[in-house]
Structure prediction request, 467 residues.
Amino acid sequence: MASDNVSIHGAWASRWVFILAATGSAVGLGNIWKFPYMTGVYGGGAFVVMYLFCIALVGVPIMLAETLIGRRGRQSPVNAMKSLAIEAGASKHWSLAALMGMVAALLILSFYSVVAGWSLDYIIGMGRGDFTGISADGAGAAFGGLTSDPWRLTLWHSLFMLITAFVIAKGVVAGLERSLRIMMPLLFVLLLVLLGYSFTTGHFREGFDFLFHFDPSKVQGGILAAMGHAFFTLSVGVGSIMVYGAYMPKKASIGATVLTVGVLDTLVALTAGLALFPIVFAAGLEPGGGPGLMFVTLPIAFGNIAFGQVMGLIFFVLVAVAAWSSSISMLEPAVAYFVEKTGRSRSQVTAVLALLCWLVGMGTVLSFNLWAEAKFFVFADDGFHLLQWGGEGGKTFFDSIDYLTSRILLPLGGLSFAMFAGWVLSRDAVREELSIRNPLLFNLALWLIRVVAPIGVLIVFIAELSK
Ligand code: PHE
Prediction:
């Protein structure tokens, strides 16, 4: 049986390394950039409560499903699902879900690398003191200056893609495991330093209340956003967690392990919020700044508070490290698959795939400047246009890829993985993998995977598409 073997790509030394790796994947721009700004936009506590529900009821069950499929299949997501489906007497076409996830992960990587590249630029800017005493206009102009310069964006995008490929090319143990052992503790230390600092701003209470004050009137608007974000932040729906599950030791209990990852990811998001909002308030700024919160509002805050330059530098290093440990998990499912399929070396496969992602990412780079007017998927009065130059409506290249992945491919992938684990694999197989001994808890987990998570995804998916 496939589950007795170790994957050809290697294996984590212990379940703790899986926790490290999966947490590294989960904690990223989603936690530090997206979560705080979405909380700001959707009104604070109300969004946080919905997000917590979505994590618990949909995100974690899908993460359980992915991990157990991965560990039982012991191969890249595509081949794991194929062989498990055949073993269970089901159609091998289930593996198409993993194939779709694999493509989605590469597409996410293409733009993630560009945004992560911005944080590299900000490390330099902070280090040089560019933001000291800066005004709101100045910070806006600095961000605009970066995004309107295709060469500068290309430089950072290339560098980030290169360091991602470098870790992946070195392999599961020498590359991923070894770097994660350094990256993750560094990340936690940096975050705690920042949190400690936010205590000293004198606005901690204000930040805390903003995050945790529950205002029921604000619940409605953010529920779809909260669900989509739960997927993105836990890295589920694309096979990243599945491929990491394939490298997990046989004996480790998946139930407890996955729960730890879910809790850690949530704690980091909440801590990031708790660390950032007091700094924003201390500088007298508004929390609802949207996506610009991290690259415009925060630099103003850092530029105008005591020790802001050092703290700002620490902050952007933190962002870059978190993004790095996430980006490697986007590349791994495809690298594992093509190594299995072609028998070529990891380095060769990595080089080709990274180059491909880099090329697609150039579309995102250009969508902020030279191609800003190129609009895809335009529904205009005179009908539908796939691509139109200028005019109203439509999405830029970056927006299109972001929309396609997080609103369509991720939910579809997550739904398929939960259905596969819940209904295609036998109950005994799931029991054996999850190793949750308490029958009540096991049934709860199974019910979440089989029914609650799929229905949750379907509701949100349909609501999104019919918007
Ligand atoms: N979870 C990552 C973040 O929060 C993003 C990610 C999505 C990583 C999908 C891997 C796969 O930034």
In short: The first helix runs from residue 15 to 26. Residues 376 and 400 are 7 Å apart (CA to CA). The chain has one domain: 15-465. Strands lie at 374-380, 383-389.
